[in-house]
Each structure stands twice: as C-alpha cells, then as structure tokens.
Amino acid sequence: MKVGLIGLGRMGRAMAERLEETGAELLVWNRSADKAGGLAAEVAESPAAVAAGRDVVLSIMANDAALEAVYFGTGGLCSAPLGGTTIVEMTTTAPDTIRRLEAAVREAGGRLVECPVGGTIAPARAGKLLGLAGGEADDLERVMPVMQQLVRRIEHVGPVGAGAAMKLSINLPLMVYWAALGEALGLAIGSGIDPELALDILADSSGAIGAAKMRVPPILEMLRTGEPGGVNFALEVALKDMGLMEEACAATGRPGTVIAATRAKAAAAAREGFGPLDASMVGLCGLVDPNRKETK
Q1: For residue 160, what is the DSSP state?
Q2: What separation in angstroms does the CA of 240 have from each of 57, 69, 211, 243, 266?
Q3: DSSP secondary structure letter of residue 159
Q4: Radius of gyration, alpha carbons of the chain
Q5: Which of 142-146, 182-186, 266-270, 290-294 is least confident?
C-alpha cells in the first residue's frame, strides 16, 4: 500500500508510525524535513511531489495558514495537475474552508475527501481514531483501505463540509468540560476538600466524560508541583478550534454562548501561560501558576 502523508506534527507523526507498522510505503512532506527522522518513509521536496508520487494523500496540518501554504503555496498541492489523486484532508478547519479546498482540488483534476478525526496521539498510534468523513461516496470508498488502518470507526456524515462541522461538534462539549472541571475542583478545594479525593470523585461521577480518568494524574501532578506532563492537545490549538466553533454556530444561526464563554476563559488562561499546556489544564488557571510552578 503506497500512501502520501503531508504534515508530521504530533498527530501526523503518530499516523505515519501506525501506517508504516501496517506495511504502508510512505512518501511524506513536512515543512521541517527533520520531523521525518526515524521513519522509513521517503521524504518529498514539496506537497506537489507527494501528490505526483501517490494516488492517495493524507494531509493533517495545525491551522489554516499551514493549509493555505500546502494547497496554494510554492510547490503546493494545487500548483500542478492532480489527475488520479485523491486527497484525504484531516485538518480541523471550518466547513467553508474545506469546501473551498475541495473546489480547488477538483479544478486541478483531483478528488478530495475530508476526514477529521476524534482522538489524540495514543489512539492515532493504535489505529483507534474516530473518522468523520465528508464527500462523495465513491471517493470515500477509494481511500477506505488506507483509512481503515487508522480508525476504529468511520462514518460518512454527508457532503464535504459536514465532516468539519461534526468534528467541531464533538470537540465543543470536551472544551466546555475541561473548563467546568476546573471550576468544580476550585469549589471543592475552596471548601477544604483534598484535591486528590475531589478529582477522584469528580472523575467517577455521573458528570464525568470518558477522557476524565486519563487526565486525572497529570491534573493532580499540576496541582501538586506545577508540572503539567505531556501534551495531547495544546490549549493554544484548542483556542483556534473554539474560534471555529463560534463561527460555525453563527453561520448556522444557532447560539454559541457556552463555547464563547469557554473560549474567553481559555484565552485568559493562555495569557497566564497555559497556552502550550494540554487543554485539560485550562480549569487550573487561578489554582496553579504555570510559570512559578507553585500551588496558590
């Protein structure tokens, strides 16, 4: 199985390792070529070179600026004919953005399926992501042998743009939860309850989400020592996504008041130094100073 992969950030790297493990012959591109170190993959000179060498190309970028460069910059995907190439765009972006990219790819002679995913680095490495596909059924069928190596479940949610909307929809309550968890923890600590006991009860309660127990140890360590542990999904990236959520709510005429309040709280936490930390730490702003590493 010959696959192209553009973007070797945290998620892209995990997916590359997973695909190589399943026997894929990868042709990759990343702005910093050294990110391919340790992979068996061949490194291409440009995104266009990846598309020229593979019929199926996966792309996963950090933000819209990176997407613009990959598609429309020098050596970008749309800088050369794309006949016979199907691109699977996995970046979290706005529905309007992915529709614009699909139109550009189609004009260049290629096909585009969107498939943003639910899950972080560990599920990506294990092939246990949740795929949220948008596009034509025939195009999705064409890339399924590749996608099945990365996902535990893939759903065709509608035309191009629907996958982006669904990805924002699944991330929205997660962002709200981490902010609310911090407030709940602050209430408990302020009432004299031991932080470890409070976290354990909160994670075991009916209000907890599936990811809560996994994040309890690093949250507790942050409370105790100010050490935040590893980052699965940085708050500064989550802030970008929350902005997309607000825009998508506005575009559909639906209220976005809860995510707007959560985004304001997250922005305040980022200003206090939480931006590079995992998004699950957002609620600890005001309880822990990430710069001095001491409990308030």
Answers
A1: T
A2: 25, 18, 21, 5, 11
A3: S
A4: 20
A5: 290-294
Strand pairing of 25-29 and 117-118?
Answer: unpaired
Do both 170 and 155 map to the same domain?
no
The total of structural domains in the chain comes to 2
Q: Are 133 and 156 in contact (CB under 8 A)?
A: yes
Task: Return the axis-axis angle of helices 235-252 and 257-269, rounded to nearest 10°.
Answer: 160
Q: Is residue 76 domain-shared with residue 176, that is, in the same domain?
A: no
**What secondary structure letter does DSSP report for 268?**
H
Least Cα distance to 75 among 49, 107, 100 occurs for 49
| Cα 97 to Cα 31, 81, 104, 114, 240, distances in angstroms | 21, 21, 11, 11, 14
- CA distances in angstroms from 91 to 88, 195, 196, listed in the order given: 9, 36, 36
187 pLDDT more than 80? yes
Tokens of 189: 């600590």
180 and 121 belong to one structural domain: no
CA distances 7 to 36, 87, 107, 109, 224, Å, are 10, 13, 23, 22, 36
Looking at residue 296, what DSSP letter applies?
-
- For 42, the token pair is 């061949």
Q: Which domain holds residue 280?
A: 165-295
Confidence of residue 296 (pLDDT cuts 50, 70, 90): very low
Residue 140 near residue 114 (C-beta atoms within 8 A):
no
Tell me how many degrees the CA angle 267-131-24 measures, rounded to the nearest 5.
Answer: 115
Report, as residue numbers or ranges, the catalytic residues: 167
Distance separating alpha carbons of residues 242 and 175, to the nearest angstrom: 8
Q: Tokens at residue 131, please? A: 């795929």
- Binned at pLDDT 50, 70 and 90, residue 207 comes out as confident
Maximal CA-CA distance, the chain? 65
Question: What pTM value is reported for the model?
Answer: 0.92
